[in-house]
Structure formats: C-alpha cells, structure tokens
C-alpha cells in the first residue's frame, strides 16, 4: 500500500527536487557573477565582439585602462580572464600553479592533430614537457654552456661558429642598410638544429628563410582571440572535407603554410633519422628514454615545435634588441649584461600575451572568483610596459611567462640571445633605418613583429 502511495507522489517529488536544484544553480551562478572580475558586457553567448580579430590587442589595452589589473568578459560561451599586472599574474600562475593548465586552441589542435606539448594539457603532454626539461638541461654540454664553461664543450664551439658567421655577414654589409631578419633567422635556425639534431644543418639558406617566413606569418596572424580558435572541437573535422569552411574562418592560408612547413620538416627529420641520430642530439636522448616510449609521430612533432617556436621568437627578440641598442647607445658602452637583457625583453615583448591557459579548478586571484575552465590570458606586454615606466623595478621581466606552463626553452634562449647581442654590441654601433616613418606594428597574432627591418652596422674603433 505504502509503495503504491509513494509511486503516486514520486513525479511531483522529482519535479520539486529538480526545481529546487535549478534554483540552487541559478543562485550560485548569480553569486559567481557578482564575484567575477569587472569587464565589458557582450552579446548573449557570442560575448564581447570588439575583443576578437585584428583589433584584439588594442581592445585588451583599452579594457586594461578601463577595468584594471584583472578583466573578465565572455567569448563564445567561454569566460575569459586577463591578468594585466605582475602581481595578479604571479598569483594566478605561481601561487595557483597546480590549478592552471594549457588551453587548447582549436585551430592549433586541428593543425597538430592532437600531438605536441605546447598546445595541450593532457597527461602525455605534461610527461613530454618534463622529459624536455630533463633531456635539454640535464646534458653535460648544455650544463657547461649555461655555466660559460667552454673547455671540451661540444655545444659552445658550434654556437660560437654560427655567431661569428653572423658577425662576418654584418661586416660584409660595409655600413649600408641591411635587412637583418633573414640573417638572424638562419643563424638561430642552424644553432637550434645543432641542439636538436646534433649535426650541421644541410638545408639551403633560401629554404631556411622560406620555411621561417611561413612560420612567422602563421604566428603573427594566428591570434588566440578569434572565432576559429574557440570553436568546439567537434566542428574541426569539417575543415578537412569542406574547404569553404576553412576560408570562412580564415584558416585556409594558415593551413596551406602549415602544410609547407610540415612537409619540409618531416623530410629533413626523416633524412636525419635514417642517417642515424647523433648521440649529442636532443632527439637521441628522447629516443633512448625507455620510460618515455616515444612514438615516431611524437618525435616528429617535438622536433617541429622545438625548431619552429624557438627559431621564430628568438629571431624576433634579436631584431627588437637591435632596435633598442640603436635607440639607447649610451647603455651599451660596456658589455651587455643581465640588466641590459632585462631591458631588452621588456622592450620587445615578442609574445605579448603568451599562450592561453585554463583554470583546471576554481580559484581566487586578487579577491576575484576565477571559475573552473575559464580561459586565462597573461598580458606580458602590459607588465613590461609598466616596468619600463618605473625607474626602480622590483619585479623581473617575464618574456617566457611564469608558472608550470612557462616556456621550457627559456633558460637556453636567454643565454643564447645574451651571447649574440654581446658579440654584436662589442663589434658595432647600430643605426636603425626608419621605413617611411612607419609606426611600430600593432600585434595581431601570437607574436609581435619587429619594429624595424633595416639597420646599419658601424664597426667600433679598435682600442
């Protein structure tokens, strides 16, 4: 009898429970909205449209000035939180490091096909990242290079050889305007090749310049704040079968350039693998790691990311460094030191917003509620601009970002950049050539293009 009565009232009870649960979720949502950082309102689901596309950089700067150090807005159903100061960025990336992971950009996922370490937050990506730290910085020659110990070091001599080659090309310009980017790219590429493959790069200079130009174009156009990067992953397979969808989302040119880069890199990597990897190479150490069990696809993708990302950002930083040296010659009467490099990194801000992160758990930053699965953007450019306007800087530059997802190659890149800039500064006074008084380019993508392209290198008088 009682069972029959229970069944009669069960539908009503279920409805009451569901209604109460819905009210609870709504109240919790309102509470979270009140605790979110300030920011602009946007269209339902679509979000704050001005923050998308080519004007994203300017819009984030406007939002920073309007709403402060932590800004929040909606984008295609996602909560986006931007940290604009060193203090808030440090609290998010370091204090809450276990709660922060990598946000997977949709277009990058489509291109990488699920492989690599820079765009993913999977356990395998984290494992590969840890292995990269271990094999890059645990090798005796890298340890010696970072410590400036050149005796019997098989890494220092090849790096010095490439730097000397760069100096000779600058001397051969005979104090006439020269476009430095192609020369810098070749130099960095050949050094990175030595580290990754352990051998001399046999690619033609023209081919190196072409592939790095394709990489640079993709990085400068492929912004994180565009509709295509926030598409649901289930839509991505349609790119393969419906090219017009690629064109609609402006992914077609990115895809074409990526195919050129990928095919060239795959050919060269396969050639090196067939010839036998050098025991001095980073890839060899990966293949000998029995615990890692690296697949051929993972090895190819790892080599691709190391060569592409490392060469492009380092080349851009050097070009910005030459602009800074030309504008502040009084700071470089003596040799370039750590303080000089800090100033150059602040001035360059080559990756102005880093790569996007994700809040793996809800957290609190600067008193604001940051919801789970929010996209986190670290405004490195704003941090560096504030540091440049401050006479005494108590916070360091963060060109390689902060926290558990900072650039793994940062230590090596900083040492290499210091060596190159020291060599150039010791030999030349630099003059930047303005092209029709063009202003500095406004960043549109993941990287920030060079301020100037042409320079004159005047040899310093020998003492």
Automatic annotation (TrEMBL):
PROSITE patterns: CYTOCHROME_P450 (PS00086)
Residue ranges that the Swiss-Prot or TrEMBL entry lists as coiled coil: none
Protein name: Cytochrome P450
Originating organism: Opisthorchis felineus
Cofactor: heme
The keyword Transmembrane is assigned to this record: yes
Family to which this protein belongs: Belongs to the cytochrome P450 family.
The entry's keywords: Heme, Iron, Membrane, Metal-binding, Monooxygenase, Oxidoreductase, Transmembrane, Transmembrane helix
Pfam families reported for this sequence: p450 (PF00067)
